[in-house]
Amino acid sequence: MSAASTGQSPINRNIERVSPELVQAAAKFQAAILADVAGRRGTLHGRVQPLSKAMKVAGPAITVEVRPGDNLAIHAALAIAKPGDVIVVDGKGDLSCALLGEIMATQAKVSGIAGIVIDGAVRDSHELAKGDYPIFASGLNPCGPTKSVAGVVNAPASVAGAFINPGDLVVGDADGVVVIPRNDVARIIELAQKKLDAETARIAGILKGEALRPAWLEKELRAFGMLVEGEAL
């Protein structure tokens, strides 16, 4: 049953977003750090990658669900997204047609949209990869999309294995993309800073030749039967 048949619009314009202050604070951390402290959850499948490893993005999610090969709903999302938003598209991982190219990316950039994440194909990749506008996608295809199948904008979505609500925090970098639930962002940022401080100290110690192996290693090896009691590495 479609949203239209139930009297509900398939385009939701009113969502609650993670605050700009929290977006700015979270953007300082790697996606990997955020994913670790979030319980190693919320990451999109590794097939979703930036077109250039220098690309980074952070912002509240505008979710889009489309049928494979059709980008009509993405155009609707581009029209209603606010500056700073990240458009996140459930394209079902389909690579038979590109859902976006240089024209739509230029429209998004000029509109102030922070970036686009698509579990699907894009095209004009040479031009997009040379630019500074963040595009994350599952693959490439020169074939263009149709614009004839209804989709849904700003409903809960599953994108490349990650559950996303509209307004959740999206952070992407060279490693991929992680999503943090909007109401949990402040806590995750605090944990991320503690983890970053600990990792920075650990790396500094390794570079000095101090404690080259992690302190927990032998205990865990014994716990899982790889070392017997009293045995050491």
UniProtKB/TrEMBL annotation:
Stretches of the chain forming a coiled coil according to its record: none
Origin organism lineage: Bacteria, Pseudomonadati, Pseudomonadota, Betaproteobacteria, Burkholderiales
Gene3D superfamilies: Ribonuclease E inhibitor RraA/RraA-like (3.50.30.40)
Organism: Paraburkholderia phenoliruptrix
Top-level taxon in the UniProt lineage: Bacteria
Cofactor: a divalent metal cation
InterPro entries in alphabetical order: RraA/RraA-like, RraA/RraA-like_sf
Annotated protein name in UniProt: Putative 4-hydroxy-4-methyl-2-oxoglutarate aldolase
